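testing teh design pipeline on a random one, pls ignore if ur not involved
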């Protein structure tokens, strides 16, 4: 969550660098407008808060380097849009005005590097340490803000991974195949997802009838494939629990 805001800014600069050296350079303003309109539709105050609570974005060396596109970097607290997003996020997170004011005061202590945040070790670790670990180490003076930072920075920016598992689950447990227990279905989804990743490193995935088998969302091509054998081999240890020793589970 803490990286998406900066990545969007960098993406615009990278697009500008690429287009400036090609025949389509005159179209950059139109491309920029399309990207910004899309960003305005998808951005939320939490993106600004995650950016503002990432300690590495306040590092002097980071701020002195130019961003893609030759743009000078600014600390999050010097960016009007970011500050507005942070204040809006605090107003939504806080249960009352006193808590909101406390979060604002603690945020000021953080970005102005007061107390523990002024320690040389804290500023060095801001670049090398994971942001969540950094807050767990140096957030003692602002415990409420540190708790918010840990929760915000641990948020994923997309639900795609979970949605892929839901799609896999619909293949394994369906109207026609509904006698599976919940634990068995969960194990099959787990094994299928990981076997799918492993299969991408095999030669059968690159050539033959099962080439890029998982690219078609309508068909898993599991029957009579090497992936099916991989799945059942991984489940052999669990067969005693549900279906008897040495027998494959029923899936019909």
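output:
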């Amino acid at each position: 969550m803490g990286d998406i805001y900066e990545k969007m800014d960098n993406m615009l600069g990278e697009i500008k660098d690429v287009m400036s050296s090609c025949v389509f350079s005159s179209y950059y303003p139109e491309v920029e407008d399309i990207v910004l309109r899309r960003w305005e539709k998808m951005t939320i105050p939490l993106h600004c808060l995650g950016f503002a609570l990432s300690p590495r974005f306040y590092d002097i060396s980071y701020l002195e380097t130019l961003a893609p596109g030759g743009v000078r970097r600014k600390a999050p607290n010097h960016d009007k849009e970011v500050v507005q997003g942070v204040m809006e996020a605090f107003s939504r997170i806080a249960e009352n005005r006193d808590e909101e004011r406390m979060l604002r005061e603690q945020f000021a202590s953080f970005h102005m590097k007061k107390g523990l945040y002024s320690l040389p070790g804290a500023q060095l670790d801001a670049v090398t340490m994971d942001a969540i670990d950094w807050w767990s180490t140096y957030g003692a003076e602002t415990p409420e803000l540190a708790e918010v930072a840990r929760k915000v920075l641990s948020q994923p920016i997309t639900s795609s991974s979970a949605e892929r598992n839901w799609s896999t689950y619909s293949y394994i447990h369906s109207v026609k195949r509904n006698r599976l227990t919940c634990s068995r279905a969960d194990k099959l989804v787990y094994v299928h997802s990981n076997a799918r990743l492993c299969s991408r490193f095999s030669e059968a995935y690159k050539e033959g009838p099962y080439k890029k088998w998982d690219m078609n969302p309508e068909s898993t091509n599991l029957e009579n494939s090497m992936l099916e054998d991989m799945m059942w081999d991984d489940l052999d240890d669990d067969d005693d629990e549900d279906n008897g020793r040495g027998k494959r589970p029923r899936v019909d």
